[in-house]
Design goal:
The chain is of the alpha/beta class. The chain folds into two domains: 151 residues, FAD/NAD(P)-binding domain (3-Layer(bba) Sandwich); 140 residues, FAD/NAD(P)-binding domain. 32% of the residues lie in helices and 23% in strands. The strands form eight sheets. It has a five-stranded parallel beta sheet with strand order 5-2-1-9-20. Helix 1 packs parallel to helix 8. It starts with a strand and ends with a helix.
Length: 397
Amino acid sequence: MKSIHVVIIGGGYGGIRALQSLSKHPNITLTLIDKHPYHNLQTEVYDFMANKVDMSHIMIDLPSLIKSFAHATFICEEIRSINTHTHQIHTPTYTIGYDQLILATGSRTYFPHFIHGLRTYAHGVKNIPIALNFKQQFERALLNRIETHSQGDDIQPFNIVIGGAGLSGVEIAAEMAAYANQFYQHGNFGCRGVDVYLIDAYESILFGMDPFLIDSSHQRLLKLGVHVWHNNRIKEVLEREIILDNGKILPFEFMIFTGGIVASTLTQHLGLPTNPKGHLEVNDHLNVQGHTNIYAIGDIAHICNEEGKMIPPTAQLAQRSAEHVAKNILNARQGKAKESFHFSPKGVMIALGGEYGAGILPGGIKVKGYLAYVIKKAIFWLYTAPLRRRSAIGKRR
C-alpha cells in the first residue's frame, strides 16, 4: 500500500492522541508541528498555580517524545500559511506537503469586547507562560503582605476575583483558596488572609452539569471560604476593581477570567469556514467543511451533539475526536466509508482544592472527597506515564 504523509498541527491532547493512533501503521509518515517544544498538560495547570507541583509536572518535551516514534518528525515553528490547493504548509523555515492534515491547535481565553478593560486587566490561564507569570506575581504579593504586616502598617483587603463559574473557574477558585489557606496556616502568619470571589452569571455554578457535581462543588467552595456571587455579570474591569451590572464594585489584587474560549488564532488566517468564535466548521466525519483531506479536532473545531449544540471542549473530547479522525483516515485509505463522530462523556472529575475532588465515573458512579482526588490523579498518571516513558526513550536516540 502506498505511503501517505499526515501532518498534525498542534501538540495538545488531540494532536498527541492522533499521533499515537496513526503511528501504529508503517505506511504512514507523520509530522507534528507546534510553536512550543512541549505538550502542555492543561488539566493540571491549576495545581501548578497553587504551588502543589513544579513546572516539569505540567509539560512533556515534544522533541524527545516524537523521536520515540519510528516514522514521525517534529517541527517547532509557527504556521505562516496553509495552501489547501497545493496541499502545502508554510513556516518561517519549511514548506511541508501533506496528503492528510489534522488541525489541533486548541483554544484561548475569550475576552468579550463588550466588557471594557477585561482583556487589559484580567488574566487567562490557557498556557504555561501566563500561568507562570500569575503564580510569580501572586507569591510576590503574598510576601509583600507579610512584610507590610511586620512593619505595623495597615493590611488592605486582598481579593482574587475569578470571572466565570464553569469547570475551569470552579477548579481555580478551589485551588487558590486552598493554597492561600494552607499558606497562612503553615506559616502561622498573623496578617489577614486572601479572599477568593467567584463571579457566576447564572443561578448556580457549573450551570447545566449534574446536580451532584454542582452541590458537591458548591459545598466545598463554601468550606474553603470562597465567596460565590450568583446572577452577577461583569460590566467593566478597571485596573484594581470590577464593576458588576447591578452597580456593585469589587476591588481586587488579581483577576482571572474563565468565561469562555475561542479557537486559536491559527483559524483567522486559513480562509476556512468558522463559526463566530473562530472554531472550524466540520461535518459528521470531522472534516473541515469542503475539504475531504483536512480534519479539525478538539477545541479548535465546532463539534456538535445530536441536538445540534456545540459540545463543551475538554481533553476527553480532544482525544476521542483524534481517535475518530485516525480511524477515518485509515478507512479512506482502505476504500471504506468514513464514519460519523458521536460523543458521550465517559465520566467527569473535578479538582476542588487540596486533596479533594468530586466526579462521576462511567456507569454513573458518584464519588467525592479524597477518593475522587485519588482517582483524578490516577487518571492523570495513566495518561502521562506512557508519554514520559516514550519521551525518555526518544531522549536517548
